[in-house]
Amino acid sequence: MPISQSGNGIIYNTALFEKAGIAEVPQTYTELKAAAEKLSAAGITPIAMSAQDSWWPQFIAYYAMAQHVFPDDPGAIEELLAGEKTFADIPGYAESLEVVKDLVPAYMPDPLGTNQSAAKSAFLSGQAAMFPATWILSDARAAGVEPGYMNFPTLDADVADMWGSYLVAWGINPGNDRVDAAESFIDFFFQDEVYTDFLTSVKAFPTTEGIDVSANDPLFPDMVAAWEGKTFRPVVIPAHPQLQETLLVGMQNLIAGRSDVDTVIDELDAALVEVRANAD
User: Which residues contact 141 (CB under 8 A, 6 or more apart)?
Assistant: First the structure.
């Protein structure tokens, strides 16, 4: 029984959007790129993204993978691990890396020479307009940034899949003699007042309808509304360190212009062969 959820998306600086003349929050990839061009023209870094820290570009790629891969191939992870498909067989992975490459002009200047802390500071100091992670929200408030929230669009079509997760869950062990008591506790926990108190204390999002979390942050209701009807995809590539490292290094090279999408896909497939062989 999941007890909290967390969708991922963009926290943006509403004042910088206004300064750049962005009247409508981008809902499509074309609109996102148009907004980025307006921000750049106004002397504002569009996205607080850099690549010196290899883990940070995931916060572009994973949004794209959730949207490009899973609507057409919801079983992609299992198929890759089972040897039924390769990364090259699933077009959404290459399309997602194209998004990473396509948005490079919107990243921090000299992205390979800029670490994540500097990118974060650029957002909090009003030099960058968008931060592709929701955990910046409390820091943004503390820094005096008036934040807005938007899902991260990487397609021009509305899709139900997005990068997100259910963070915590209650479970009942069927092998014990306390199942009735555990079920009674869950019933108690999900009473509106009790559940609201819990979510307020831990600053989390509800998994049920009708729970007011505006006490956590004025933006929380907008975020919950933006996630309605979405299927969270917490894992967008097989969860193996070798594949993860191959992707991270490949994206660094892609952003630096030292590699291309086809090469990164080939590298992922080579790593996948090794992962499957070791599993056998």
Answer: 147, 217
What is the pLDDT, as a whole number, of residue 166? 84
pTM (2 d.p.): 0.91
- CA dihedral angle for residue 206, residue 209, residue 214, residue 216, rounded to 10 degrees: -10
Name, in order, each residue with C-beta under 8 angstroms of 228's C-beta and a sequence gap of 6 or more: none
**Is the residue at 88 inside a domain?**
yes
Q: How many Å from the N-terminal Cα to the C-terminal Cα in the chain?
A: 33
Q: How many other C-beta atoms are found inside a 10 Å radius of the C-beta of residue 16? A: 22
Distance CA 60, CA 46 (A): 13
The domain in which residue 69 lies consists of 2-164+231-239
pLDDT one-digit tens code per residue, 18-30? 999 999 999 999 9
Asked if residue 175 is part of any domain, the answer here is no
- Residue 111 CA to residue 159 CA, distance in Å, equals 29
Q: Does residue 184 lie within any of the structural domains?
A: no
Q: What is the CATH number of the domain that holds 41?
A: 3.40.190.10
Q: Is 44 within the bounds of a domain? A: yes
Structural domain tally of the chain?
1
pLDDT 10s digits, 4-49? 988 889 999 999 999 999 999 999 999 999 999 999 999 999 999 9
Whole-number average pLDDT of the chain: 95
